Amino acid sequence: MLASTATVTVPGTLRDKLEAIAAAGFKGVEIFEQDFIAHDGGPREVGRMVRDHGLEIVLFQPFRDFEGLPEPHRRRAFARAERKFDLMAELGTRDILICSSVHPEALGGIDRMADDFAALGEIAAPRGIRLGYEALAWGRHVFDHRDAWEVVRRADHPNVGLILDSFHTLARRIDPNTIRRIPGDKIFFVQLADAPAIEMDLLYWSRHFRNMPGEGDLDVRGFMRAVAATGYRGPVSLEIFNDQFRGGSARGVAQDGYRSVMALMDDVRRAEPEIALALPEFPARDAVDGVEFLEFAARGADAETLEAQFAALGFARTARHRHRALTVWQQGDIRLLVNRSRSDFAGSAYSTHGTSVCDIGLRVSDAPAVAARAAALGSAPYDQPRTADELPIPAIRGLGGSLLHFLDAGSGLTDVWSVEFEALDPADAGVGLRRIDHLAQTMSYDAMLSWTLFYQALFPMQKTPMVDVIDPDGLVRSQALETADKGLRITLNGAETHRTLAGNFLADSFGASVQHVAFACDDIFATAERLAARGFEALPLSANYYDDLAARFDLDPDHLARIQAANILYDADAGGAFHQLYARPFGSGMFFEIVQRDPGYGGYGGPNAPFRIAAQKRLLRHASVPRA
Ligand code: MG
Ligand code: MG
User: Fold this and answer.
1) Which ligand minimizes its atom distance to the CA of 597?
2) Has residue 476 got a pLDDT over 80?
C-alpha cells in the first residue's frame, strides 16, 4: 500500500507541502493543479523537486467538465486535455483525475460519456497516460460511483478506469459495499476524506469541512474495507479541503494525515483478515488500564502551593526518587508526582509553562507494543538520559509537548515505584479518593481534531458527541474520549478566545495542557466532611443554581440541602446520578474536581459547566492582583 496525499491537504507553499509530506512518511503525492500553478517553477523542476523528496507523483488533478459536451465545447475539452497530457509528461506522472462534469451544457447520456472516455483513452494510451473518472457528489449527471463505473465499463478501454473518493460516496449516503462488485483492476486510484456529520450543501461541506479519516463521522473504514475487498492495491491518498488545516502547520497536518492513513489501513487489515494488504506489521491497539501516575513540574513557592493542595485533598507523601527531585503523593489508586528538577524534562516544562502536568503515565497491558504502535503511526520515541538503575519506560510526546509514558506489569515497568523510589511514612488515611475519573486537557479549538485522532489512533478509545460549554466570555467545545471499560477518560476542551476560563489558562500556561483532574470517590458527602475538617475550601456556588436544580430534578429536600451545604453540583442521566465538588482554582487556572459517579452515568456534568465556570471566574476576579 502506497500512502499518499494530495498537495491540497497540507498548507503552505508547494515546497513547504512537499517537505512536510515527505517528512511525515508519505511516499506518494497528488499534484493539485492550483498548487502547481501558484508555484514559480516549471513542471520539470516540480517533478524533480518531488523526486528529490523521495516522493512519486501518483496523480495529477483535477481535470473538470470533460464528458458529454455538445460541440464546440467537446472539441475544446479534448484540446484542453491534450495540453494537460503534455504537462503531465513533463511532471513525470501517469494518472489524471477527471471529475464528473458540472458544465451547464453537459448533455449526460451514459453511452455519450463512455464514448468520450474511449476516444480520450485512445489519445492517452500512446502517451502512457491513464484516465480516472471520479463521480463528484454534486456532479451534473453523474454523482454516484455506480454511474461513474457504468461509464468506465462501457468505455471498455484499458487506459480508462474509476477513481473512488470516500467523501463523494459517503456524503451521498451510498452504501460503500456496492464497491465490492467493481473489479479492483479497473479502480485506478482511491482518495480518502472523512467529515463531521452536518447537514449542509454538499459542495460547501466538501470544500471546507473534510477532515482526516477517523476525525469525522463518516464510515471511511467501511468504505476502505470494501475497496480492499475488490483487490485494489494502488495508492491510498488523502484529499482534504479544510479551513483549519489551511491555517495550520504543514508538518502537523501532514503528520496527522499519515497517522490517520496508517491507523485506518491497520483497522482494515484487522477487519478483513482474508485480504493481504502490503502494510508494515505493527501491534493492534493495546488495552489501557488507567492512569499510573500524573507528574507535575513545579519549583519553589509554586511547588509548595501544589503540595499544599495535595495535602488538603488527603494525599500523603509516600515516596521520593532516589536520584531526582521527585516526590510521590498517593491516595487510593492515584499517584501524583511533583518534580522540582531544574535539569531534566520537568525542569524545561516548568520554565516554559509554570506549574503544569508535564508527564502522564498510562498503565497498559503491553508497553513495548504501545510504543511500537506509536512509532508506526509517526510518533518519535522520547528518550531521556537515565542512570543504570532507572527503568527504560517507553515514552512519546503528547499534548503540548508533554510526555506520555507507558507502563506494564509484564515488562516489570510498574515495579518502578520500588526500584527507583524510596518509601516514606504514609501517615494519612485520606478523604476517600479512589482513582482518577478523568483528565481534562485544554487546547486551542484548532488543535482538537488532531488530539482526537492522536488518542483514537493509538488507544482503543471512542469519542462521545461534542458538547458546547458556555463560558460567560465565549464558547468552549468539549469532546470526551473513553476506553470501553472507562479505565481512561479524557476530555479535550477547545478554546477559541483567551477570555474564556480555558482560553485564559491556555494563554497563561503558554500552551495546551491538563487544566483539571477529576478524582473519583464512593461517598461524596463523607469525602466532603473529611475535606472540610482539613480546612478544604470548596468552590462556592450561587443559591440560584440550587433553586434551578430543585426545579430540574426531583431531588429529595434533604439531599438537596446536603449538596447545597457542601457546594456540590448534581447531574443525572438515564443511567444514574453524578455529584461534583470543585476545589478552588490555583496558578494560571488549574483545578481539581471530586466526583461520585453512578456506574451508568455517562457524562461529565456538562450542564453544570456554565455555572461552575462563572463561579471560578468570580473567584479569580476577586483574587486577581497585578501580575509581575
Ligand atoms: Mg476527490
Ligand atoms: Mg470535569
Assistant:
1) 2
2) yes
Pair (23, 165) in one structural domain: yes
User: Of the bound ligands, which one is closest to the alpha carbon of residue 571?
Assistant: 2
Whether residue 228 sits in one domain with residue 332 = no
627 pLDDT higher than 50: no
Which structural domain range is residue 468 located in? Answer: 433-617
The rounded Å distance from CA 99 to ligand 2 centre is 47
Residue with cell 461513474: 148
Cell 476530555 belongs to which residue? 491
What are the beta bridge partners of residue 599?
A: none
Ligand in nearest proximity to the CA of 32: 1
Cα(561) to centroid of ligand 2, in Å?
23
Distance 171 CA to ligand 2 centre (A): 34
Ligand 1: centre distance to CA 212 (Å): 13
Distance between Cα 181 and ligand 1 center (Å): 21
**What are the respective helix, strand and coil percentages of the chain, to the nearest 5?**
40, 25, 35
Each residue of 247-256: pLDDT tens digit? 999 999 999 9
Q: Do 472 and 387 fall within a single domain?
A: no
Tell me how far the alpha carbon of residue 447 lies from the centroid of ligand 2, in angstroms: 19
Q: Residue 54: is its pLDDT beyond 70?
A: yes
Mark whether 126 and 262 lie in a shared domain: yes
Query: DSSP states of 321-376 as a string?
Result: ESSSSEEEEEETTEEEEEE--SSSHHHHHHHHHSSEEEEEEEEES-HHHHHHHHHH
Q: CB-side exposure of 324: number of CA atoms within 13 Å? A: 25
DSSP letter string over 251-266?
A: HHHHHHHHHHHHHHHH
**Would 624 be classed as within a structural domain?**
no
Domain assignment present for 501 = yes
Determine the distance separating the centroid of ligand 1 and the alpha carbon of 78, expressed in angstroms.
Answer: 21
pLDDT at 144 exceeding the cut of 70: yes
CA distances for 119 relative to 71, 140, 156, angstroms: 15, 21, 11
For 599-619, write each residue's pLDDT tens digit: 999 999 999 999 999 999 888
Q: Give residue 624's pLDDT.
A: 53
CA of 49 to the centre of ligand 1 (A): 24
Ligand 2 geometric centre to CA of 286 (Å): 25
d(CA 492, CA 477): 8
Q: Copy the grid coordinates of residue 413.
A: 515497568
To the question of pTM greater than 0.90 for the whole model, the response is yes
pLDDT of 394-424, one tens digit each?
A: 999 998 889 999 999 999 999 999 999 999 9
616 Cα: distance to centroid of ligand 2 (angstroms): 13
Q: Please compute the mean of the pLDDT values over residues 209-221 and round it to a whole number.
A: 96
Cα 427 to ligand 2 centre (Å): 29
Q: Which ligand is nearest to the CA of 59?
A: 1
Buried b (16+ CB within 10 A) or exposed e, 230-239: bebbbbbbbb
**Do both 75 and 219 map to the same domain?**
yes
